[in-house]
Amino acid sequence: MNRNKPELPFHMEMIFTYGVAREIWPGVRRVVAPNKGPLTQNGTNSYIIGQGEVAVIDPGPADPSHLAAILEATRGETITHILLTHTHKDHSSLFTELAEATGAETCAHLPIHENRGARHQSGAALKADFVDFSIAPARPIKEGDVIEGNGWALSAIHTPGHAPDHICYRLEGQPVLFSGDHVMAWNTSVIIPPEGNMAAYLRSLKKLTGGGYERFMPGHGGQVRAPERLVKAYLMHRKWRESSLLDHVRSGIGTIPELLPLMYPNVQPEVMPAASLSILAHLEHLCEQGLIDCKELPALNSNFKSN
Ligand SMILES: [Zn+2]
After folding, report:
1. Which residues pair with 105 in a beta bridge?
2. How far is the CA of 58 from the centre of ligand 1 (A)?
3. How confident is the model at residue 194 (pLDDT cuts 50, 70, 90)?
């Protein structure tokens, strides 16, 4: 096993103005919401697909200025469909409001209510209220479904891992995928149990290899320009993380507070809860593979031992 940390080819740059739609691919416009943050980079990307009769992917967070920006960007056009990549509020809060304003058909994965949010027994963690339980799509979306409009079609690829209901959408006839929070150019996807599941995430990453993609349009940050290379780099990076965690646990370091500074030496305080939960997701995955053990349901305050 290669013990050298594989570098991830991150791209931070992004040309945009808040509230202003910008064409980033023929027939694809992007409007960025002003919910900048450590887990959202510059904010949530809402995408407008087509011309005249359009679809909106991820209407974004509960911000009246962002709703107004989407309506302004599509003035004189009809929004026929509103799609969600997943039911996290930074993507979905305007789902119903935009549908009420436009009469568009709402499309999303059927709501999942079990095993959602973050497991945070230690107290120092993310709140679970980032999941939007209010989503009730008129048209439930599942793997392989094709949503068609005037001059465009999007096919759904179920990609659980970051969220159990995560869907990526391929723009039919184009080498373009709307990748949501599954694959982004500026950071790795946040996998926090039980909302996130590492085994599912790795399977969902493998699902995107070999598709001939040239661009991923993520939920946050700029476009991914060599997406298949990035997906492979992510898979290697996760493998490296797990093998180094396994080494640490085998050497007797078995708690997340001890592992955190070893795994993320330069972590900023505001992302420490997410980093801790990401370590938990990996440890959970190592437990599932029978490589390490934990007496109870793995949690932030658990003690892990090698088998
Ligand atoms: Zn997001």
Report:
1. 81
2. 10
3. confident
